[in-house]
Amino acid sequence: PSKDAKDAAMEKSRSVVLNEATLEVVGADDLIAADSSTSDPYVHVLVYGEGRRVLVDRKSAVIKKTLSPTWNFTTPIPLDPKAPVVTAIVLSVYDKDMIGSDFLGTCTVDDADTLALYNHKHKTPLKL
Question: How far is the C-alpha of 36 from the C-alpha of 60, rounded, in Å?
Fold first, then answer.
């Protein structure tokens, strides 16, 4: 085989096919106190594909009585070549109550396809 054919074969053997990525939501700081001086926060994760198709819809555990929760919550994101690309990641934070939940804030990461494929840390303020 020619040098070009060997180089192409070597490059092909180094390629990696990803079937999923992992999104990790570490925590939040300085949340609003929904229960007098504290909150019981959890995060709701929505990952959207093309046409606003929901690819992931997951909730973290509730962390009791804190305004700076650490969830260390992970969820897989499917990366099937036949599936729609990731177009947005929406993180909404709520205070869990005995009946229902109070909205604390949200943030949206629009360039989510890049975040899903690479090890990337992103810190963004919640919008109320």
Answer: 23
Q: What is the pLDDT of residues 11-20, one digit of tens each?
A: 554 555 557 7
Closest by alpha carbon to 102, among 93, 111, 110?
93
- Identity of the residue numbered 69: P
Query: Is 107 in a helix, a strand, or coil?
Result: strand
Report residue 104 CA to chain centroid gap. 17
Instruction: Tell me the two tokens of residue 66.
Output: 């804190």
50-75 pLDDT, tens digit each: 888 898 999 999 999 999 999 999 99
C-alpha 29: how far from chain center: 17
* CA proximity to 95, closest of 34, 25, 27: 34
* Sign of the torsion formed by the C-alpha atoms of 77, 101, 65 and 35: positive
